[in-house]
Amino acid sequence: MGKVFDRYGRVSAIDHKYTGEEPTWDKCESWPIDKFMNERSRMFNFYNYYCSAKDLFNDLLKWMPTNGYTKQQIKAIKSEGECCVSITCLKLARAMNNGMAPTRKDVMEYVKTKHGLAYDEPHNDLLYLKKNIDSVIRSNNVKIQAEIKLNAEVSNVKEIIISPLQRLSNKVNAKIIAHLEAMIDDNNWANDSVKVEGINLIQLLKANDIPVKGLKEVHTWLEHIGNSLQCALDKDNEFDVEGWAFTTKVGIKNRLKAIQTMLAQVEKYRGANTKARKPRKKKVKSADAQVKAMKYKVSDDDFGLSSIAPSSIPGSTKLIAFNTKYRRLIVYEASSKDGFSVKGTTLQNFNESNSYELTIRKPDDILPVVTKKTEKQIFKVVDALKTNRKPPNGRINKETILLRIF
User: Fold this and answer.
1) Which of 6, 169, 174, 253 could make an SS bond with 83 (beta carbons 3.0 to 4.6 A apart)?
2) How far, in Å, are 149, 297, 391 from residue 348 at the CA level?
3) DSSP of 61-94, one letter per residue?
4) Of 216, 246, 281, which closes a domain?
């Protein structure tokens, strides 16, 4: 899916036309309760679509110190990793970091108006999150005490090795089953809605590199829910009938259809990945490593210019540079959405047809626009220049000021 977060730390909602932007919670305490609960539900769906547990784990670590947890307790959670709590907890932590109220006094009034919802008491996301974290911390303390006791009794303790099969099972539960459970708990599946949607499992399995051996647990989980729905539809099991009583017969059929579709996706993924082994991904150098040998001009007093940090170039899609010796403005556009890369002192992956350089006759008029205006304003001015253009070679030298990236 590309980068999960943009440079400002917000979720990069590339499909915002369908999902909306990341929920914001300004003055949410005074919202109508329907708006608050609907936005809370959309929040779960939004993070479920764009983020994995690994993406949201730092939000949990950021949330803990503001809610009374010590450095030692935060260290305990960090040592357990993102799988120590459910992905629902991680979503709530990010939402509360962004200003979401953990509860509302009028939740119970809202519940009474919704057929199929039956809370014993108002939900409190703060208490729910603390309960889960405290459970992990207690387990961690017990584990530490057990290790201390074992080390005291045995001088040479062998490290417990997790088998590859168990490691795969942990990954499937964290990356796939957790999303399916969130679908059941957080989406329209949990209320009286007739129409529901499943998860695109092919996309999710592919994004998390789940091998064919890991599909058994996913298949078993889907079959269990499918059997429960079928029993409710056929009225073969009183517990299943009661469990799905909040929706209509048509609603049960639609949920069963969604499960069958996801089962078919699992089998399709199995068929596509059984024979062909996915090639190993080429390791990408960090931005700092790429620009380590780059030669560029840090600043120029004659033109009053300073270069941006070269480490911001890898991954960006547009670069504007200026050769102070020949007064050449150079515009690079990346050849793909992955952006530029740098090798030595040469820019890589730029589109030769859309990139160009031209001589600036009046730098005092043009350069302030390039350094201070928006992208649209910059190119409106540059496109109006009638100076001859030629394709650039991609080399950055000691006379080149790095002006802007987009």
Assistant:
1) 174
2) 56, 19, 14
3) HHHGGGGT--HHHHHHHHHH-GGGS-HHHHHHHH
4) 281
User: Are 11 and 47 within 8 A, CB to CB?
Assistant: yes
Shared domain check, 360 and 220: no
Cβ–Cβ under 8 Å, residues 368 and 318: no
147 and 170 together in one domain: no
Q: How far apart are CA 259 and CA 321, in angstroms?
A: 53
* Contact indicator for 331, 322 with CB cutoff of 8 Å: no
Query: Quick one: 10 and 155 in the same domain?
Result: yes
Answer positive or negative: Cα dihedral of 348, 352, 355, 357.
positive
Q: Tokens for 260, please give them.
A: 């069958």
- Give the SS3 label for residue 7: coil
Choose the final residue of a domain: 131, 159, 187: 159
- Domains in the chain, number: 3
116 and 129 share one domain: yes
The tokens for 329 are: 């403005």
Q: Is the entire prediction scored with pTM above 0.70?
A: no
Q: What residue type is 57 in one-letter code?
A: F
Span 233-264, pLDDT tens digits = 898 888 888 888 888 999 899 999 999 999 99
pLDDT at 20 over 80: yes
